[in-house]
Amino acid sequence: MNWTPLSQNRSDFKPIWATSLPQALNLIKEAVQGERNDELFYDELIKLAPNSEQASIITSIRDDERGHNSMFRGMFKEITGQDITGSSSEQYQRISSYEEGLEKALQGELAAVEKYRKIWFGLPVGVYRDTVYGIILDELKHASKYNYLLTLDRTTI
Predict the structure, then answer these.
(1) Rounded distance, CA 116 to CA 51, Å?
(2) pTM score over 0.90
């Protein structure tokens, strides 16, 4: 049997989401700079929630997101020696209904998984990469919670 060690072929293989450290740092900066709009969105969605149980679920997601932002800021500072400054120039778009907000939130969580996967690939092995992996798992958990809330919203009439 002819066997070729994987290490001989590895240098040619590159995942489609492969990212360099400078690209990962730029993505971290982008993720944190949208913080203000995220806060406005979560506050609005919490107010639109039909009951305290659903508002509590969204509040827990918002609180997780605040922690993620803090961790991203800390990683960026430790790696670059610089603070993330500025904010997104994107204007906040209000939502017209609770269901629209849940759909937007679900899509946002899934988009965050895509972005954070790129960040993960650009970071060196160790605590930063492990932290981003934990954040990705949280984003997937949030998407599941938004699916639950959408299901409740669509089946409760």
Answers:
(1) 32
(2) no
